[in-house]
Design goal:
With 141 residues, this protein is mostly beta strands. The protein is 0% helix and 37% strand.
Length: 141
Amino acid sequence: MTDDHPTDAIPMPGTPRPPGEVPSSATEWVMPREVLLEVQFERKKTRIPLDFADTALLVGRGDSDTPVDINLTSHLQAASGVSRQHALLTQRADGIYVEDLASTNGTRINGFTLPANQPYRLRNSDEIEFGQLRTIIRFKT
């Protein structure tokens, strides 16, 4: 690894990885046929299909005053810490990105806390924490 190309590093298993890093052996990005957000709630796993028809999806706790594209309200426990407008998932030509919207309890990818208002590219099977709610992104090709 050189200082000029820190994204060439492949982290050890279980090591928090700054999002957006891609091993040098990675192939060119191909948009998956289906993208799912898996939410583990109590003993039940829910798969939420993500439809990027508008290229961006707002994630949060929706209510009549705050509509969101991905409403996590039914998956929350009292201390989950998901904001009303927590994060944005965006589809771009080179991948799918997550951006924390200055949420109260933050967003993490694989243990790495994201700075607010800065998009980070996701990889298949990345763990995304919205507050304390853990989810996993799945790409189906």
